[in-house]
Known about the structure:
This protein is mostly helical and 375 residues long. Helix content is 71%, strand content 3%. The protein has helices at 7-17, 26-51, 67-92, 97-123, 151-161, 165-185, 189-202, 208-227, 233-236, 240-266, 268-271, 275-287, 291-300, 302-328, 341-345, 347-355, 359-368; strands at 63-65, 128-131, 146-150. A three-stranded mixed beta sheet has the order 1-3-2, sandwiched between helices. The longest helix is centred in the first third of the chain and has 27 residues, at 97-123. The relative contact order is 0.10.
Amino acid sequence: xxxxxxxxxxxxxxxxxxxxxxxxxxxxxxxxxxxxxxxxxxxxxxxxxxxxxxxxxxxxxxxxxxxxxxxxxxxxxxxxxxxxxxxxxxxxxxxxxxxxxxxxxxxxxxxxxxxxxxxxxxxxxxxxxxxxxxxxxxxxxxxxxxxxxxxxxxxxxxxxxxxxxxxxxxxxxxxxxxxxxxxxxxxxxxxxxxxxxxxxxxxxxxxxxxxxxxxxxxxxxxxxxxxxxxxxxxxxxxxxxxxxxxxxxxxxxxxxxxxxxxxxxxxxxxxxxxxxxxxxxxxxxxxxxxxxxxxxxxxxxxxxxxxxxxxxxxxxxxxxxxxxxxxxxxxxxxxxxxxxxxxxxxxxxxxxxxxxxxxxxxxxxxxxxxxxxxx
Length: 375
């Protein structure tokens, strides 16, 4: 069985559809790339000092890409995650004969085109990302991922918002470098996320008739999003087992996104003087866009991600205010100390379960604790 997605088609389609981004002279573009690399290394130092996470001390500069470069990097990452799964799934349902193969080839072109279209949409919005799943490094010295910044999108956003370019670039680097700290400083985190994703995808092994029902649900989700409802495609195509796994994945992603948002603003004032101005303009932009834009965001679950930033950073802020950075950092001890979605909504539950100080220190610490916890 061939791959379920023709990745070559996805890259070609995405690169063809994506808009080129702001036109700036070559010299200026080179300067932007150099500055982003320099600022990403600077951000790493700030993030390490502020978060007290166990991050390797020698800063690695970020990889700076254009929009087609981001599409290609993402497709490479998808392949790493999905190809082994496709093999396992095809072993589960062997031999659908020659017609199956033809359908499969046509289907993989269609999904390649769809995938390319989604990536083209995303590629003009993403400012940067920590790529967890890279193809294995042939030299064996593979980093645990790569930090990528999408230069044209950063420039387009700072122009659109009318903010100080250096401040904005450093601010974006602080968020992305926090992700690098999470995944390089917490040894088990990357494997945990990959394992949950694998389980999620393997749990989708359903019968053809169930699949038809799911597709109907998916069509309804599209219709609902167009009408302004909040169905997402992810919700429409899930088994009960997948819902449980998705809850765990959502919780960990909400934590890492919220932590990134908390750090970029908390480190901000000394390092990024105009941080308050940037944050208010940026939040306004996150919620904006045309009706079509909002519909696509809802369908792809990007709106969910925006909610995650808000809920996640509220959780981190509350925990940090009550038990300090060392108390918060207990979150990284093991998968068991990660917050559940319920605890993200009510941080005092997580504090009681994981971060509550032992009785001996209780008397000293209780003096610092604010009386009554507001949510």
